[in-house]
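pinned: reference chain
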Amino acid sequence: MLVGFFSVVGLGLAWRQAATRQAESAAERALMDPAAPDPGMTASEPVSSPSARQVTIGIYLERITALSIRDSRFAVVCDVWFSWTGAEFDPVDQLLVVDGTIDAITLLDESHDGDGHYRRYALTAEITKPFRIDHFPLDRHLLLIAFENGSLRRDELVFVPDRVNTAVSSRAAVHGYRLEEHEVVEKPHSYKTSRGEPGISPGGKTTFSQARFGIVIVRDGWGLFLKMFQALFVAVAIALLPCFIRPTHVDPRFGLGVGALFAAVANAYLVDSYVPDTGEFALADMINLLGTVTILLTLVESTLSLHLYDQCDERARSRWLDRASFAVTIVGFTMALALILIGASATP
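pinned: its structure tokens
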């Protein structure tokens, strides 16, 4: 029973972790692919824009001033510049940060050379992002900063990403994560409403040019993982110690397991303080559940051993059950944990 339990649980959860890692990677690629629809969002409609104003946009990320997985938000400070040819206009008039707010924007530099224009701004923004927690605390996330002009549709204005000069400062650090890669793209973004705008058919869509700057952050090392689960691993080890105690010594035999169970429950509350209140099962929840059920199995084993020892007078069989259960449980728990972590760490 123990061999089957740990094999099924380990392989099943490892497969789920690997599958969600693949889905997460595919969603990241779709968000940064101009030709792919955003996952779960309204597909963009093709818009002809040969006469639209072409505005080059570039971003230099100075700092990530806040990031909270539990509160589903992050905040940035960055330089944003615009360059274009033709008539002068204000590029930040009606400029929006999608899924966020611009807290402050300051003009730092501008130049005009005939029909050529350039403006650079310092910008502070806070962005709402529902972080996926499937692999927490071995998680990775795509931080997306997306700009739109709220009044000019894509047939009137198209952003052209400045891929050469867009960059990330070495000061843009996030505690516990490393910045792995970044990319800037332009992508059509359609809303499934005309918002009652004159000249657009009822039920029609409006499409805007969206400049997207994506930064991938990856959990840096195993430090948080070890800090979160060291108490759980010790609790599982304590729950296995009764296998070397005579079954009739019921106080230590069952007291150690019950104490370990309370420690596992307390560890689950610790994990809940890191993640938002959702119905999703994170990697951390799976490991806590694995540890809790393992401790419960040790209590069941102690009950069976006591029955054999005291009621059936099968003392040799009771000792054999204790030794075999100890070996199978410690190997099975370690194997299942390793399989789950391999699945969570699989490269997409």
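why pinned: Residues 315-345 form the longest helix (31 residues). The CA atoms of residues 65 and 320 lie 58 Å apart.
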